[in-house]
Amino acid sequence: MDPIEFIQKSASSIASTMHKLKLKYNPFSEKPIRGNTKFFVGRVSELREIGEILGSALHGSVANAAIVGTKGIGKSSMLNIIYYATKKQGHWVVEMTASQVTPRQFLIQLLYNILTENILTMSGTIKSDYMEHSSRILDMYRKLNNYGDKVPIHYPRERIERDLEYLINEVKSPEKLCIILIDEADQFAKKSCLSLLQFFHSFLYEEGILTFMAGSPTLMDDLTKISPPIKDRIPKIINMPPLSKDESYDLIRRRLEDAHIDGADEYEPFTENAIHKIVEECDGIPRKIIMTCSESISIAIRKGLTKIDENVVKEAMHSLGISVGHQILNHLTPAQSDIVRAMAELGGSATVTQLAEYLKKSPSTIGTHLSDIYEMGYIYKERDGNNVYYRLSKELRDVLIGEDDELEM
């Protein structure tokens, strides 16, 4: 068959099946909200707290905040809401991700984003409000326009910091805030980022700067371990709890309503039992709810179904690995993940010496990681003579070894 015809027929069949499911499109997208609030549910207390922080900052009482929660809980969506809410008020706003970069690269990224998101127009010209500073702004922009891993050596960090201070103190209007939104801020909890956090000690106290960092529940503890003063610079912690059951149902309902064709019932094409299964199993984690619904619809399309029942949802969850074991793996660091996978390959239990030999790492390094994993409750240990064996928890065994290959605990 002609490949072009094959693609066209496949696309046409999907459109037909989607119509049978009473959907115009798959409404369960993981893309950020990007200013569209119709799918945003709950979070009333968190939004109120953010509003109070912004209101206080406008009157000189700046309290930087950490937005913390488990993976998929909605931290990035919350940052996105803050971005559009404050952008509409005319503040300078910068969205960033704390990827594994050097402090200097991060500062360059920050400076570049302040320029391009707030001072330069889409066409690259300077906004009229800032024309009096045009010469220096253009000088900065020329140096940064092609920034990357190899930053020009003639633009040292000291100069970057001076330029940042110039933009904040001389170019920005006093009545406006410079709001910095940093996602995946756990990346800063590394010794290599100590100098960056030290820079933040003074930078975050600048008048008119407000920072929201998003990360895991242990974000502030991890940052404080390598830089104790940072705790004073980020005094507010906004915890993102799971959605309630009512909010979980509302999340699904809103998205389906947006995609329904005329005449569709409330939860179509899902059966009532299927919706209950999703809400019960996904524990109020928005990303898990969205992924499960999306995969269920994909399975229904592949099989030509007109209804999504509990069995389809179970298949979707199995396909996605929506389980406690997978959640644990997502929570582990890469080094910790390597160790538990090595334990699985060695039969589910191993000594420090065995793991060190298997992974070609020093016993002290392996021992440190094992202690951390043990403290989190993800592995067990028991003594056999002179040897201490570490054993995988049942949840990790189910994922890494298989449900039919049980070890006696």
Automatic annotation (TrEMBL):
SUPFAM superfamilies: P-loop containing nucleoside triphosphate hydrolases, Winged helix' DNA-binding domain
Gene Ontology MF term list: DNA-binding transcription factor activity
SMART domains assigned: AAA, HTH_ARSR
InterPro entries: AAA+_ATPase, AAA_16, ArsR-like_HTH, ExeA_AAA_ATPase_DNA-bind, HTH_ArsR_DNA-bd_dom, P-loop_NTPase, WH-like_DNA-bd_sf, WH_DNA-bd_sf
PROSITE patterns in the cross-refs: HTH_ARSR_2
Signal sequence bounds: none
Name of a matching Pfam family: HTH_5
UniProt domain HTH arsR-type: residue ranges: 305-409
Domain of life: Archaea
Name the record gives this protein: Transcriptional regulator, MarR family
